[in-house]
Fold this sequence. Notes:
The protein is mostly helical. It has helices at 8-26, 40-57, 62-65, 68-76, 83-91, 97-115, 117-129, 133-148, 153-175, 180-197, 206-219, 225-251, 261-272, 277-294, 296-310, 318-335, 349-368, 370-377, 379-382, 386-401, 406-413, 421-430, 442-448, 455-485.
Amino acid sequence: MEHTGRTRTQGVGLWLGPLVAAAVYLLPSGLHTLEGMGSRPAAAAAVAAWMAVWWFTEAVPMGLTSLLPLALFPLLGVFGGGPLHGVARSAAPFVDPYIFLFLGGMAVGAALEACGLHRRLALHILSAVGTSARRLLLGVLLATASVSLWISNTATAVMMLPIAMALLAQLEAAEGRRLRGFGCALMLAVAYGANLGGMGTKLGTPGNSVFAGYAARRLGHDVGFLEFLSVGLPAVLLLLPLAWALLWRVGRADAPRGAQGAGAVAEQLAALGPVSRAERTVGVLFATAALLWMLGDPLRALLAAQVEALGGGFRLQAKHYEAAVAMVAAFTALALGRLPLAALRRVPWDTLLLLGGGFALAAGIEGSGLSLWLSGHLGGLSSLGLGTQLLAAASSTILLSALASNTATVNVMLNVVPASLPVLAVTALASSCDFALPAGTPPNAIVFGSGYVHLPTMMRVGLLLDVLAALVLSLYGLVWVRFVLG
């Protein structure tokens, strides 16, 4: 194992995945007896088990795991109808419009990073919130969450960590001492802000796009950009004050007096210089795209008839419109020279495969009849009250996300929880709410390496925030989400 750099968990997972899949497919069970489906449910369940094991153990890169449906679904006849039909059905989810929405959104985010506009916006938020210790902590949390609405939580954490470290260095120089408690709180504010901010928009984290795609395919509900914003953003606004309150309990013990952080913020803003032409161009492009997304429903209604006439009956859905806006914005940035090719390397290409693999898995579960089998065996949970369903979904998703990436978690959980829009939405939101372990999300790991975050503190604060998030999201789903999504 030492020679390959593979951990023991990864080594075990590498063999466990196909072994579990073989057991699910070959052993007699109710998966082989669903009327009219033959062994197709067992085949889909086998591939799902294989993918889950490899995703959770990270035995191979997640993007490669996501390609398993392309090879195995046609081979095992998951969709029926012959190999060519199986290949077409397995490949279609990898070119789903949500893939292009995420790609275009990440490309625009890369343009923001390339010109430095995201850093300027974050510093202005810090300056506006205030620079006393308590407000500075809130400012870092809000600035990080605001940026994370539009670019990946990992990129946000990487960008915000140096800003937080510079602020902390200025405070420690003024105080003449190391601020262990406040430094820990400031670092965790970067991680928690990045995780929470990603919940707010369809672009914030891949799990949101997975949910939207699943809702469209399984339930026929096309979740628009503004509709998701009305679900995701209030959840962010509910959880940020809780995170701030818990982090202040950690940071207040040695928090600096006065407003020494003002100098650090002003110094970093001055170092950026005046707003460049590139920043203005990208800012206008980004604002235009955001406005078009928010006005999606009325604009799509105006365009639908023309598109249907020109496209031979093609029905323009929210995902087509939003993906088109994202890709046009990305190509415009590229054509104007505001999106350097080097910046495209920061686009998470593996995540696009992960999205496609998740969509393909969901399609296989639906097309094989496995979803019927699951709904029959989960009838007990579906018969419970909505509040109980929401609490069970939120709690189990947060627990699972401590062991796997939020995208892998939501890909699995959406196929397990009851197929109700409020439950599915809360599951997607909960997948971004692991705060207790460094391995839970990339932002957690990034700030853990700062030297200020100690594992016992992270676990104590994070576990309490995990519990509060599960309770808040459950109540939020019951009171708000079910009325927004129906």
